[in-house]
Amino acid sequence: MPETQDPHVTPSEPSKFVYDFTEGNKDLKDLLGGKGANLAEMTNLGLPVPPGFTITTEACKVYLDSGQEPAALRAEVTEHLEALEATMGKKLGQADNPLLVSVRSGAKFSMPGMMDTVLNIGLSDASVSGLATQAGDERFAWDSYRRLIQMFGKTVLGVDGELFEEALEEAKRAKGVRVDVDLDAADLKALVGQFKDIVAKETGRDFPQEPREQMDLAIRAVFDSWNTDRAKLYRRQERIPGDLGTAVNVCSMVFGNLGPDSGTGVAFTRDPASGQQGVYGDYLQNAQGEDVVAGIRNTVPLADLEGIDKPSYDELMHIMETLETHYKDLCDIEFTIERGKLWMLQTRVGKRTAGAAFRIATQLVDQGLIDEAEALQRVNGAQLAQLMFPRFDETAKTQMIGRAIAASPGAAVGKAVFDSYTAVKWSRSGEKVILIRRETNPDDLNGMIAAEGILTSRGGKTSHAAVVARGMGKTCVCGAEELEVDTKRRCLTAPGGIVVEEGDLISIDGSSGKVYLGEVPVVPSPVVEYFEGRMHAGADDADELVKAVHRIMAYADRVRRLRVRANADNAEDAARARRFGAQGIGLCRTEHMFLGERREMVERLILADTDADREAALGGLLPLQKADFVELFEAMDGLPVTVRLLDPPLHEFLPDITELSVRVALAESRKDANENDLRLLQAVHKLHEQNPMLGLRGVRLGLVIPGLFAMQVRAIAEAAAERKNAAKGDPRAEIMIPLVGTVQELEIVREEAEQVIAEVEAARGVDLKLTLGTMIELPRAALTAGQIAESADFFSFGTNDLTQTVWGFSRDDVEASFFTAYLEKGIFGVSPFETIDKDGVGSLVRSAAEAGRATRPDLKLGVCGEHGGDPESVHFFHEVGLDYVSCSPFRIPVARLEAGRAAAESLGSDSR
């Protein structure tokens, strides 16, 4: 008979699912997760890490795929648990000398607070007395037991956490105390009984007393937490792949809640908000680690630890220096002190604000820990964009109502809301909101994403609100103790009796920690002033941040291959783009030159019945169009200017058919119909299109309306000739024909354009060297790029329209209708209009680039859709081999930085 295969084992299943902390290292994050890999690394460095083991991400993947743990996992966990018991001289949960463990999540990428942790596993009715005897502290034992039931009940058994919180608050009220440390052993023992009753009532079963069952259920709960709504939402927000899974770390417990000589804290080797070196972090005496990150008790600054426990403080400072030198980066550290003994519970490369990222990168270069290429990889375009947002005007008249901890910088203004549901609801209605909470927890993630900023009355720089806000680049102010937050009454009370009701405007400054009543005006960022040339980075009084940005941008510009141009339609935008570092204009949309007063002239052109009418309309437009180009070529003298001939849908230049129909109908009812309106309505009906975006526009309009494109080409050529002759300038115009789908269209327009250019050159006695190319914005153009390249000097990929035509949807319609659902369901990780769809649209860009250059090796390739300023898309365009990207002026610095990062990344890959 054939062998029956275990249904839980697959041929690709790994042979090892559990690693002791002594077996791993920091490079095994894919397998051990970030937490497990770093615990192993610290163990290898000889740092004081409590013994433990890590269950791999591969085990999690098997569980998530099949609904069952791998068949070999239980035996491996037993083997490592027995080894841990032998090391510790204790057995898990034994009555007289219990070993307790924590079960903690740990994915490859940090997801603070998004997945589950359970502490004090192994405690039960039988072992709580043994723990009390072991510690010589009955209160500690019962406190640890109530924590286990509370965390286990909420995390593993799915009990509403508010039920435990309410019971705890009632116990404190009955005792007449404000904080849980003032509850004695008898109070906590009674609370344990209440917690067990809550579990039984809510779940229909007693709290599990078997220690191994507790551990196994906690491990499974951590696996399950990978796919909670909040974890999936966070991954979408941070663009973390959903198939990585989480590791599980089982670590012997060390206790910070053993009295005043014990405590727990979080430390940073540098300030994650500013990047400054010093002693940064929070410490909480007589507490467990979750008390710090949850923000439920206000901490003391880490520097205070020196006066509380100097030996532990000195050892911690030495370890922090060791870790920063070893990781060559800002490190975020969790530690516990158990009766004067320091233990390291976690380290990771810390999340930081955008400003801190730039400062720290240059500091580490100056210290010789990293080189400029690595510094460039330590920052990104999204961070640079954050630094370009405005800040509050310090000279404005303000009413400050509070000041707290500056947790994540920025200037945020919005209406006060007191729960995440309202934050999301109001945000979707177009309101800007500030989310106000006593403290946030992972369930608040939706509201944090929706809000302009976050304000909490509890917690510090290491609380959940602070850590998550920094990761998202959200403004955050924490620990505003003087502000009383009442989430039930939905209001905030400030000193002096000032009350902020839900819906009232407030402003928060994440750089200073100040909270203001009402709206505070903003001023430009110093980084924007630097890019615009109003601040010199070399000046003695230049902002330290500006100096750091200047150094990294200078290196990015030296190494990048991609050139960066601007999308600009007038001289003012062109001049601004040039100040921001643009190396030309990649897209000048001539339709913007036909709006306003000129619209009637275009309307007359389109509706012209005779050649004479059409020529008159074109004659009126020519000098106006030429004057626009003269200004543009002056602003961009010496740099290329790509001018796209008229492209928009026809209806944009015609009267609205509904309004015109109503006007004519009313006039007819009054028997005073206007003959011109009747003729106009007849013409509009004739030209009306059901889908104008796919109708008579672009090259099609140029071919149907004789002389239209010729007029535009003549205006470009005459403006260039005037700039070259009269001003002795260096105009470098590139003429781009839009919406080409076949080479024949391009050939016809090119022939006409070359004839016009030759006439202008002969008349003005100049050699203009104008080039002609096309936009690749239709799938057919991309698929026949090899043919089209025969008549094109350049391609510019119009990725906005290419995305619409590849996907078959209109951006204006679908973003409001179904994009939200697609993002929530994970069909889109990010909008394809924000970051290029590499598999679909990107595949066409790649193949068109290759086919075009196969026909014409010197073919210039660029992109002029807004993807040109998107960080991730810029890396793709570098990889594909384009020559330049073009984007709006404000995004030019971001594109420059990312082009440099893409080049440095490629160089690093090549060297490896």
From TrEMBL:
Keywords: ATP-binding, Kinase, Magnesium, Metal-binding, Nucleotide-binding, Pyruvate, Transferase. Residues 431-513 form the PEP-utilising enzyme mobile domain. It catalyses: pyruvate + phosphate + ATP = phosphoenolpyruvate + AMP + diphosphate + H(+). Substrate binds at residues 589, 644, 777, 798-801. It is an enzyme of class 2 (transferase). SUPFAM superfamilies: Glutathione synthetase ATP-binding domain-like, Phosphoenolpyruvate/pyruvate domain, Phosphohistidine domain. The lineage of its organism: Bacteria, Bacillati, Actinomycetota, Actinomycetes, Kitasatosporales. Belongs to the PEP-utilizing enzyme family. Its EC number is 2.7.9.1. Transmembrane segments: none annotated. The active site is at 464 (tele-phosphohistidine intermediate), 864 (proton donor). Mg(2+) binds at residues 777, 801. This is Pyruvate, phosphate dikinase. GO terms for molecular function: ATP binding; kinase activity; metal ion binding; pyruvate, phosphate dikinase activity. InterPro entries: ATP_grasp_subdomain_1, PEP-util_enz_mobile_dom, PEP_util_AS, PEP_util_C, Phosphohistidine_dom_sf, PPDK_AMP/ATP-bd, Pyruvate_phosphate_dikinase, Pyrv/PenolPyrv_kinase-like_dom.
